[in-house]
């Protein structure tokens, strides 16, 4: 980006079972919309977004790699974990199976990503559990909030329940992870030279006005 208008660039990966809503969360973040019938991700997709962290007086560019949950793409998607500063580990609160598979995803992340990476566990699709009057499509929740919280605590993850459909907590999830990463940067945990997922820039302007720069593309199918 010419005349950098950000203070940091952070690399994020989004991972978890197929169909849990990883791509939908990214589209919600970058485009503020919801796709009812998105195509399954083939390999990896990319999206970026500028966010502000007002209390830190920082503009942060999130570079997000959205990976396919399908097993056959695992060896490709793993190669994108390297150097990531943040990870959204996603499950579907209406799918017990997607929750039970979390340890496998987490093991992969721990093995292939930066050991200092900040990981936030996201229980997606909470809109499906809400008892909205007149909604015929209410589905039963299969994973309680307590279970999600407990898993997160046991594995040292941040935690949030969200909905890509309603937008609930989506930006908040990325912001929470970003705050945690910036805190690590401040404490010297991430080194600008050794951690490729964290890049520091001197912005051309100190004005914190947020430009609506969001982009999305497909890569590496
Ligand atoms: N009700 C509801 N449906 C959702 C939500 N997020 C995603 N979906 C739906 O779930 C299905 C799968 O969503 P995707 O975003 O493609 O899931 P994914 O995790 O990217 O799947 P892969 O790319 O195959 O790994 C789609 O039909 C979405 O419309 C949500 O928050 N609420
Ligand atoms: Mg996808």
UniProtKB/TrEMBL annotation:
It holds the Pfam family Ras. SMART domains: RAB, RAN, RAS, RHO. Keywords: GTP-binding, Hydrolase, Nucleotide-binding. One of its GO terms (molecular function) is GTPase activity. It comes from the Eukaryota. Belongs to the small GTPase superfamily. Rab family. NCBIfam families: small_GTP (TIGR00231). This is P-loop containing nucleoside triphosphate hydrolase protein.
């Amino acid at each position: 980006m010419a005349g950098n208008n950000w203070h940091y660039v952070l690399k994020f990966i989004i991972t978890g079972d197929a169909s849990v809503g990883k791509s939908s969360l990214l589209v919600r973040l970058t485009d503020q919309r919801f796709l009812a019938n998105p195509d399954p991700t083939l390999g990896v997709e990319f999206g970026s977004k500028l966010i502000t962290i007002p209390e830190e007086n920082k503009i942060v560019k999130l570079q997000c790699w959205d990976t396919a949950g399908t097993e056959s793409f695992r060896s490709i998607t793993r190669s994108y974990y390297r150097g990531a500063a943040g990870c959204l580990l996603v499950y579907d609160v209406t799918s017990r199976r997607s929750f039970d598979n979390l340890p496998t995803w987490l093991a992969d992340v721990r093995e292939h990503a930066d050991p200092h990476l900040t990981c936030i566990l996201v229980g997606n699709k909470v809109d499906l559990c809400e008892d909205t009057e007149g909604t015929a499509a209410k589905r039963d929740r299969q994973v309680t909030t307590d279970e999600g919280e407990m898993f997160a605590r046991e594995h040292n993850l941040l935690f949030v329940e969200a909905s890509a459909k309603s937008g609930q907590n989506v930006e908040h999830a990325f912001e929470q992870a970003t705050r945690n990463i910036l805190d690590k940067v401040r404490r010297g945990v991430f080194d600008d030279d050794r951690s490729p997922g964290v890049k520091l820039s001197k912005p051309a302007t100190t004005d914190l006005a947020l430009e609506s720069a969001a982009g999305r593309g497909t890569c590496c199918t």
